[in-house]
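Handout for the seminar on molecular recognition.
Each group receives one record of this type.
Step one: identify the two inputs.
Step two: read the structure output and locate the region that could contact FE3-S4 cluster.
Step three: write two sentences on what you found, then compare them with the reference statements printed after the record.
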Amino acid sequence: MAEVILAKTAGFCFGVKRAVEMVYQQTGTGEKIYTYGPIIHNEQVVEDLRQKGVTVIENEEQLRQLESGTVIIRSHGVPRYIQDMIAKQGLKCVDATCPFVKKIHNVVMEAAGRGEQVVIIGSGSHPEVEGIKGWCPADHPAVVIETAEEAQAFETPVGRGICIVSQTTFNQKKFQELVAIFEKKGYDVNVVNTICNATFERQKEACEVASRVDAMIVIGGVHSSNTQKLYEICKRECEDTQYIQTLDDLKRSPDSISCVGITAGASTPNTIIEEVQKYVRTYF
Ligand code: F3S
């Protein structure tokens, strides 16, 4: 029987785990439950919640139609006006915004309040960034910067302070490079590094586990970019690395292996990880 090493950081990060648990806590209350966007990018979890009476609302228009029930905000957070809409419509709001993201909302709100120009380093189309933008008042809008070219082209009146924050999942090295561009321009820059270490820690541990096993299993959705990245990292360290969505995809490795590593992407539920782990312990 092969030894199994399960990465401690496999699967949900703290914020996603908390948000998913908050949705499950709301089920069974008899209330109508809605999540503003899918709570997580995992079909099995969303389907399981649907069967428990949780409906996903996709946009503002659908939110406007609601007359009663509870709306749950997912870990990415939402712009302030969405939260205001929920309150104005007399709906109950359960805010599952990750506390690390909530902190960014507070930082940008205060900075904009002091008259500083808020700069968000991240991808403008990412829901988390849209949410952060939405906590700056309309007369002090934030600017989103993703590339070095955008940072070079950025201008603001001399003397106005700049507050720089980042999308929690932004690449640390790229963030430092972009910040350096702002600093070189001679602006008065207040940098609040809001990158969350969960992704980095998961990748670091995956690399470390993959380097000392005979076979490695990476579990996660085919479209999950963070799982794809984990797979690439593991494959570099361990030739016999499998990328599976569920236990059904798993192929047995040769009998000669003595140690198997397991990790999983950020949206892989614990139930699937447990199932794979149990199988490997029994049959490998
Ligand atoms: Fe997860 Fe929150 Fe970090 S949602 S990736 S713990 S910012």
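Reference statements: The pocket of FE3-S4 cluster is lined by residues 13-16, 75, 98, 100-101, 168, 196, 198-199 (CB under 6 Å). The chain has a mean pLDDT of 94.
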